[in-house]
């Protein structure tokens, strides 16, 4: 009796096999051969590759946005917050006024970070 595997199992086994493979590179021809062996048409493979490339591009854009957010919003916010707290402690230690600009700016930074994060829009490949 022949052993059968679920789609998820096949993906995991193939992923493991590619990690074990010495050169760790698979040509497009090899990919087409593997797909044909598991019953995936060239058209379906081409659609899946297109979706994969779009996701890769979206992930790169998301990573760039995240780095820009940290660099241009979060780091300055933290630096100025520390400065305001120190200034507050030096000038008027009895009244903690620095909490107001820190909270106000923090609300803006949080809102900006929340609103600029993209909504995942996953596409499914239909054969």
Account of the 3D structure:
This protein folds into two domains: 1-40, no CATH class; 41-127. Helix 3 (42-91) packs antiparallel against helix 4 (99-116). It is built from four helices and no strands. Helix content is 72%, strand content 0%. It has 127 residues and is mainly alpha-helical. The chain has helices at 7-20, 28-37, 42-91, 99-116.
What is the string of helix and strand elements?
Answer: HHHH
The biggest beta sheet reads: none
* Number of extended strands: 0
Query: What is the mean pLDDT?
Result: 86
Shape assignment: rod-shaped
Runs with pLDDT <50, length 5+?
Answer: 120-125
Number of helices: 4
What share of residues are in beta strands?
under 5%
Give the terminus-to-terminus CA distance. Answer: 29 Å
Helix percent band: over 70%
**Structural class given helices, strands, pairing?**
mainly alpha
* CA gyration radius, whole angstroms: 25 Å
Oligomerization? single chain
Count of individual domains: 2
Question: Summary?
Answer:
The protein is mainly alpha-helical and 127 residues long. It is built from four helices and no strands.
Features:
single chain; 127 residues; mainly alpha; 2 domains; disordered C terminus
Present the secondary structure layout.
Blueprint: H1 7-20, H2 28-37, H3 42-91, H4 99-116
